[in-house]
Amino acid sequence: MQSGLFPDDPAETRIEILKATYAALLEHGYADLTIDRIGQHFPKSTSLLYHHYEGKDELLVDFLSYLLEDAEAGLGTESGASADERLLTLFDRIFAEETPESMAFQRAMAEMRAQAATDQEYRRHFTEHDRFFRDRLADVIRDGIEDGTFREVDPEQVATMLHTMLSGAMAEQVTSDLDLSSMRAEAEAYVEARLLAEGR
Amino acid sequence: MQSGLFPDDPAETRIEILKATYAALLEHGYADLTIDRIGQHFPKSTSLLYHHYEGKDELLVDFLSYLLEDAEAGLGTESGASADERLLTLFDRIFAEETPESMAFQRAMAEMRAQAATDQEYRRHFTEHDRFFRDRLADVIRDGIEDGTFREVDPEQVATMLHTMLSGAMAEQVTSDLDLSSMRAEAEAYVEARLLAEGR
């Protein structure tokens, strides 16, 4: 998700600000982030940030919306692949080798997600975020049932499980040192045992 | 886990402090917690808290250790039940109707877990926490394979999946408004499709 998240030379001020936010999040994490620290990654005057956003949290909620817009725009690239192949591609992406950049970003996301426990704006955002990814997973399951790859399962119910398992894994990757390397194999075993139609 | 977590009238000062910590966590959450606020729930002098702990985070890491000690002591009560029944009992507990108290406690846990993204002490604790629960889940899977209830799966791998899915669900319950009611059914479907031996 990280590489290519922002254009090299953003034309819009909003995108320029969000790109600076991303760089500052990687450097400082959520808790130590300030508008001034975002300003250090912003090529124009820091006062412009205050002009666009009331404060750090308003800016970050807009940053999270941008991630969703980017995810929406990036969909549909795997068309042509079967439903089970699309799920495995997703697992590959989630359980890919971590880089320092992806770890720093996941840490900041875990901190922001925890804000949703007490802050309504973050909660509203993460609800939208969860709904978006769960709906996309349900679409894949539905396609798989339609073309006979998958059994007749409840697409929403299976999507809820897949989403919860994947977001649990992403959170654990940055909050625990326990080895998650076998998750990829078991996620695949789940798809095979629960979803793949007989004889596939 | 909440009810009966602490004795009504703790004999040890440590337990008395941790009980006050629990009450203060429910009232203020992690971010707004202070030693003085814990002191307001502590029947003795607040200065005693400073005598026992350097600060809020040292106290909270000890609080998390107490939760593990309590969980360890509470194990083995479901002996006699078969492995699949033990898993379903666990699902019942995790997906039980939420109360204001259990929600407040889960919110505080989500905030503390996020600390583990940047704080080594919290991370060390949550690694131990995850290892404990994953090991117990692997024990149940192993028992089930031994007595023929379950297929010949890799117990560690399945336990990793179950644990990640359950901790993901607990986190989502307090950071998103999305409905998780179908998780219970899908967790059961996973056990059935992936674990139950043929003809059970």
TrEMBL record, chains A, B:
Known DNA-binding region: 34-53
UniProt keyword terms in alphabetical order: DNA-binding, Repressor, Transcription, Transcription regulation
Domain HTH tetR-type: 11-71
A single MF term (Gene Ontology): DNA-binding transcription factor activity
Domain of life: Archaea
Keyword DNA-binding among record annotations: yes
Entry-linked PANTHER family: HTH-TYPE TRANSCRIPTIONAL REGULATOR BETI, HTH-TYPE TRANSCRIPTIONAL REGULATOR RUTR
Protein name: TetR family transcriptional regulator protein
Native source species: Halorhabdus tiamatea SARL4B
